[in-house]
Amino acid sequence: MKHRIITIDGPAGAGKTTISNLLARQLGCVYVDTGALYRGVAYEIKQQQVDWENDECLGGFLKDLDLNFVMEKGNLVLISSKKDITSYIRTPEITMLASATSARPRVRSALLDIQRTIAQSQDAVFEGRDMGTVVFPDAQFKFFLFADLSVRAKRRFEEMAEEQKDIQKVQRDMEKRDTNDSQRKEAPLKAAIDAIKIDSSYLTIPEVVAKILKNIQKS
Predict the structure, then answer these.
(1) Could you tell me the CA-to-CA distances from 67 to 77, 82, 88 in Å, in that order?
(2) What is the pLDDT of residues 18-61, one digit of tens each?
(3) What rounded mean pLDDT belongs to the chain?
(4) Among candidates 191, 193, 78, 185, which has minimal Cα distance to 130?
(5) Contact criterion met (CB below 8 Å) for 179 and 161
(6) What is the mean predicted confidence (pLDDT) over 61-84?
(7) Residue 1 scores a pLDDT above 70
(8) Distances (CA, A) of 96 to 114, 151, 169
């Protein structure tokens, strides 16, 4: 039986993570935060001081990489070589490194297999930047969330620890990441031709989830 795959793409701060998680819970399927996989790669690159711009070094590193998800008390936890790294992958430094390293073909190829293996065994909501365009071009349901830059920056600013707060820097970093992600040659950030676009700038989380569910249920 072919499993139901729902993709939710979009830039940082559009609400993808929270919305995808809630949607998966309501539909009774697994939620896969693909951005966390790329952040996990970036975290290990930093920890192991890998020269990620050197294909030979990067290839050797990826060959030994052991990343996977487990559910603990209803939460998705990222495990790297049997260690929970979930709490280490959301810093601004790791965010920017993930954006840069995710453009490397070898990184994308290594993580592609993990994502597609998950989809073969169960219904799933996949959140990312190229889920509907590259990873699952034949997904039954595709959505693209977006929001004004100032709104997205404010959301991310409010999530950060007090000592890290600088909204102007948050907005600059986000704008730079938007540019990097949308202009890269390998799997750029963009909406799939058949994706349903939703502007989440002035919608609540429940309103966005309701819109998505309405589109899924009418199909």
Answers:
(1) 11, 9, 14
(2) 999 999 989 988 888 888 999 999 999 999 999 999 999 999 99
(3) 90
(4) 191
(5) no
(6) 85
(7) no
(8) 22, 19, 12
Domain CATH code at residue 182: 3.40.50.300
* 82 token code pair: 């049997």
Is beta strand 5-9 parallel, antiparallel or unpaired with respect to 141-146?
parallel
Instruction: Judge whether 19 lies within some domain.
Output: yes
Helix (H) / strand (E) containing 176: helix 167-183
Of 205, 211, 218, the residue nearest 19 (C-alpha)? 205
At 63, which amino acid appears? K
3-state secondary structure (DSSP) of residue 145: strand
Is 166's pLDDT higher than 60? yes
Residue 218 lies in a domain: no
Quick one: angle between helices 16-27 and 205-217, nearest 10?
50
| φ, ψ for residue 127, nearest 5 deg | -105, 135
pTM here?
Answer: 0.79
Nearest of 32, 34, 64 to residue 47 by alpha carbon: 64
CA-nearest of 34, 163, 194, 162 to 102 is 34
Q: Is residue 219 included in any domain, yes or no?
A: no
Domain count, the chain: 1
